[in-house]
Design a protein that fits this description.
- It is an enzyme of class 2 (transferase).
- Its EC number is 2.7.1.-.
- Residues 217-261, 265-451 form the Hexokinase C-terminal domain.
- It holds the Pfam family Hexokinase_2.
- This protein is an alpha/beta fold.
- It folds into two domains: 1-51 and 211-439, Hexokinase, domain 1 (3-Layer(aba) Sandwich); 54-198, ATPase, nucleotide binding domain (Nucleotidyltransferase, domain 5, 2-Layer Sandwich), CATH 3.30.420.
- The chain has helices spanning 2-17, 22-41, 86-89, 110-128, 177-187, 200-209, 266-270, 272-290, 305-311, 313-319, 323-330, 338-348, 355-386, 405-409, 411-430, 441-453, and strands at residues 51-52, 64-72, 76-85, 91-100, 140-146, 150-154, 157-160, 192-198, 215-221, 225-232, 248-252, 398-403, 433-437.
- It has a six-stranded mixed sheet. A five-stranded mixed sheet has the order 4-3-2-5-8. The protein has a two-stranded antiparallel sheet with strand order 6-7.
- A hairpin with a 2-residue loop joins strand 6 (150-154) and strand 7 (157-160).
- The longest helix has 32 residues, at 355-386.
- It is globular.
- The relative contact order is 0.18.
- The chain binds adenosine-5'-diphosphate and magnesium ion.
- Adenosine-5'-diphosphate binds next to helix 11 and helix 14.
């Protein structure tokens, strides 16, 4: 009994410290909107970088022709092509292929990596060639989704600031990744033109906008988190260039670094890379402080995810990412929480758990995931606030396109995000705001932006 009281104390403290009442979320949303303004004001004006994407034309749905996309983000990359049939037919046909990147190429040289990518792209294009003819003399247009930090000065160029995730290829840092890709394609004899360089958030926005002109933002909740939205070009004081004809500019927020007096770094509380890790730490505390798991070997509970991550990038994909396990436990609907028991046993070597303990573990998952989803909603509310679409004077319809494995597969996260957004906007404003799952925008979005840039 003593043990259970101690354990309850740990959970109660967690519950209290992770609480996200609507008043706090409103402060977070307002702080996000404020940081957005500061980041647009001047370079370095905010921890939210508010980078110009140089995408000033989003797809309208009227594009036609054949366009290609390349999506490099995590451990896989995808090549795809879309055949667009104008405003009546939209996407007539699309095909894609996923290729995993051999781990040794993730820390080799730039020309090896881009050579491999161009080679795979070349194979795909050659195989898909039959039955699709390019108008004479017209180059194939390609959009490139590259979800690493780049500094852009035009829509079709960008220098790599640094690698993230499992990549570290020193000689590519500071280089223009489009030029590297273009060089590799030339070596392969591939006659393609890179029309746009974007990231997954911009791609998600573009992919959804193609079908629905009320889409105002693309948001990712996957391994990491990011958002992109459409800003009025004349509302960007830091922009020194000529204003585009469209009057619009897509801003790549890079909001993972958002930080306010109300909470620590945003990405660490809201993305798949970290949620499992947070739960692990809570379970370790629970074990050490209460002894509720009995006299177990805590070594698995003590393993920080990124220790393994460095040692072996191949293992990292499963071991580092505990979030799918958290989701599986959280959604366990068996009467005796069998899945929770299995996960605790398999992943953490915690055996012989009582039903009470399992319930406690589910509650811990719930506290951590709920906080994540509610903060995610606050971020989205911040964008709507910045755009004046959070229920103020003009109730135009606004659609937020969201993608990423966490949003797609973690049902309770997604439901909580959506209901919290409703709570923050209020009943009236909620009527004009919709959240849409934009499946796989990051790949097709690049091809669609290539299409809209080349019109
Ligand atoms: P990326 O963000 O690397 O481009 P995804 O958008 O596919 O890739 O997101 C993958 C991430 O989504 C994983 O790292 C994991 O954190 C999370 N995820 C995937 N499946 C699940 C799941 N079933 N439950 C919870 N989270 C999941
Ligand atoms: Mg992705």
């Amino acid at each position: 009994v003593e043990v259970e009281v101690e354990a309850e104390k740990v959970v109660a403290e967690l519950r209290e410290r992770c609480a996200t009442p609507a008043s706090l979320l409103r402060d977070v949303a307002a702080a996000m909107a404020g940081e957005m303004g500061a980041g647009l004001e001047k370079e370095g004006g905010s921890r939210v970088k508010m980078l110009l994407s140089y995408v000033d034309k989003l797809p309208t749905g009227r594009e036609d022709g054949l366009f290609y996309g390349l999506d490099l983000g995590g451990t896989n990359f995808r090549v795809l092509k879309v055949h667009l049939g104008g405003s009546k037919k939209h996407v007539v046909n699309s095909e894609s292929r996923e290729v995993s990147i051999p781990p040794h190429l993730m820390s080799g040289t730039s020309s090896e990596l881009f050579g491999f990518i161009a080679g795979e792209l070349g194979k795909f294009v050659a195989e898909e060639e039959e039955g699709t003819d390019m108008p004479n003399g017209k180059k194939k247009e390609l959009g490139f989704t590259f979800s690493f930090p780049v500094r852009q000065r035009s829509v079709a160029s960008g220098t790599l600031v640094k690698w993230t995730k499992a990549f570290s290829i020193d000689d590519a840092v500071g280089e223009d990744v489009v030029a590297e890709l273009q060089t590799a394609m030339v070596k392969q004899g591939l006659d393609m033109h890179v029309a746009a360089l974007i990231n997954d958030a911009v791609g998600t926005l573009a992919g959804a906008r193609y079908y629905d002109e009320d889409v105002v933002a693309g948001v990712i909740f996957g391994t990491g988190t990011n958002a992109a939205y459409v800003e009025k070009a004349n509302a960007i004081p830091k922009w020194e260039g000529e204003l585009p004809n469209s009057g619009d500019m897509v801003i790549n927020m890079e909001w993972g670094n958002f930080y306010s007096s109300h909470l620590p770094i945003y990405e660490k509380l809201t993305s798949g890379m970290y949620l499992g890790e947070i739960v692990r730490r809570v379970l370790l505390k629970l074990s050490l402080q209460s002894g509720i798991f009995g006299s177990i070997d805590n070594s698995k509970l003590k393993t920080r995810f990124h220790l393994r991550f460095k040692a072996d990038p191949k293992i990292s994909v499963n071991v580092a990412n505990r979030t799918p396990h958290i989701s599986a436990m959280h959604h366990d609907e068996t009467p005796d929480l069998k899945i929770v028991a299995e996960k605790l046993h398999q992943i953490l070597e915690i055996t012989h758990t009582s039903l009470e303990i399992r319930k406690m573990v589910v509650e811990i998952c719930d506290i951590v995931a709920r906080r994540a989803a509610r903060l995610a909603a606050a971020g989205v509310a911040g964008i709507l606030m910045k755009l004046g679409r959070n229920g103020g004077i003009n109730n135009q319809r606004s659609v937020i396109a969201i993608d990423g494995g966490l949003f797609e597969h973690y049902t309770k996260f997604r439901e909580c995000l959506e209901s919290t957004l409703g709570e923050l906007l209020g009943e009236e404003a909620s009527k004009s705001v919709a959240v849409k799952h934009a499946n796989d925008g990051s790949g097709i979005g690049a091809a669609l932006i290539a299409a809209s840039q080349s019109r």
